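Let us work through a complete example step by step.
Step 1: write down the sequence.
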Amino acid sequence: MSAQTTAQLHHGAVEIDEPSGTVLLRTATWCYVLRVDFDEGTVRHVHWGAPLPLADAARLPVWAEHDNSFAGRSDGVEEYPVEGGARFGVPALEVRFADGSNPVEPGVEGWRIVREGHVAILQRDRSRPLAWELHYRVQPGGDMLERWTELTHTGQAGAQALLLRRSAAAHWPLPQRADWRLSSVHGGWSAENRLERCPPAVGETTLTSRRGHTGHHAAPWVMLDAAGAAEESGEVWAMALAAGGSWRLTVQRTAAGRVGVVASEGHEGVEIALPPGGRHITPVSVAVYSPDGFGAVSRAFHTYVRRHVLPHPDELRPILYNSWEATSFEASEENQLALARRAADLGVELFVVDDGWFGTRDDDRSGLGDWTPHPRRFPRGLRPLADEVHRLGMAFGVWVEPEMVNADSDLYRAHPDWVVHLPDRSATELRHQLVLDFSRSEVTDWAYGWLCDLIGDHDVDFLKWDFNRSFTEAGAHAGGPDARSVYVEHARGLYRLLDRLRATFPRLRVEGCAGGGGRIDLGMLGRSDQVWTSDNTDAVDRLTIQHGFGQIHPAAVMSAWVTDSPNPLTGRAVPLAFRFHSAMAGVLGLGGDLTKWSARELTEAARLVAQYKDIRPVVQHGLQYRLLAPGQGALTAVQYASADADRVVVFVWRPSASFGPGHPPLRLRALDVRGRYRDEDTGAVWTGQTLMGYGLPVPRLPAGDCASALVRLRRVG
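Step 2: predict the structure and record it as tokens.
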């Protein structure tokens, strides 16, 4: 509707003051204010932070730069800055029109209440065939703001296509503060999610993936704080993008002190063709503000993912066993049956056969694309193994890599044109494989067909869905997406395939994987039940990886395995209890060669598996509090508390032995001050007031390196 009816509108979380054009979006604890200017044709940012009454918000001024001929009048203030006019900052929208020019001249048509808590601001170019809607949505009772943009070519049939060179989901302007600090994660394969905090440069800081997938090297989210926030105090703003293909987050900090973040699918050079009548909908970008530090922001994200992203948020994730580190490419019916029987004896609930079960897959050089059981190692197919796994009381899972193909495969020999490639360029093989082009419907139809056969014929309950290389030589194919849009369209094809497959098999559960943590984002989590966090299963390294992962992702999706010692990747020897405690902080899995574990190890493992089943509801569905971060002292500690504060779980790890005074007590969080809490292992009883005010005495840890403890508290009386 347009701004011409009543003075104020209230639609749940959306409040509008029509005379001033002020739109206020109210979450459970904060608000976001913007102003629609019909005369100027712009939508400007006003406020993001502490809650305000609408009447006050309507009187707030819009920040303005000093008036001079070199300053962009709207730099850092517009909700969706375009390339055009006196705008010199990072654009959210850049278009190449049919005549080759790119300036956009925006106008505002009004706003539309889509439903309660959801408003769209309607804009269009003043003279050219392009319109766009800025969508803002607050989920009922939620504390996150969702934004995305929908762009339409409004020209007549027969007109030339427009090229969207940059079409961001959102630009997030931040309020004025004296100083800023940027938080993000970086790393590489088997070293993902290394948290880094540093001042953003005056200029542009861009985090991006040019790989066709999210990437191990960075993640599509950032946090910004006013250079003084701590784990449980201080103002923090955080933004994430739900994009599983290439992506780009640009943090702009102007010399005048404005800071904002542009969140966009695709990287530079990726163009999306928009034909007449065509509509392009960006991924969703979500954001939150809290005055209570990084921990509160993390818990807001965790709650959002569980309530509004995951397909089955209320389920407890099963304890799984995966055969990869035990058998590698030598998986056979015989050795998988032996492992399955050991796993069942330990209390495992899901058995997963990893790579090597199909085609001519004796190593990583052949077989990808030929998804039928290996004739020598599974001569009877997978059905006898699946039946025995089910008889043992476990669900049955299989590793697949549907987006990849080896050149040495029947599929590639039949369809070499199906790979992401340019015909006149040499195809680069990484891990001896090529990428199948999932932007093409004939390729995803093929994948859907054999996946249906695999799941239906073998009663498969679970897929570990892997993706083991980045894009190269990516370009257009005949009749397909233009330019390099495969960098984003591939992921969209994957989403459609997963949605279709899960609709056909509602009981199917999926673990997302890309060489570990190479494709973890809110888009993939919307189609996955959990994700493989890293190929690095070293329990000490995992503390750092899991710390960064948990900044926005909940423990309920963080798959973590207990594997053999010394670790096959790092060679580090780690006691079994420490390996379990590290993995029990997420979704517990086992991945060692159980046929070589001693009777003592198997007995201890069964005890710890049973212990995890006891604490699993608290770890997977509770609230997480990071008590001591890894690398900042002798100890690392994490607390989980049930929503009603009845149960508390605390993990304590000491990676390296050291001489010195004892560690101060661990001051717990979010307990009932008047409640009494009993340690389920020692019987000691403490009041919540004492546990939060004085702290929990650090448990006595075993001597030597890699010592750990688990404390379970339950409210009594």
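Step 3: interpret the result. Residues 599-621 form the longest helix (23 residues).
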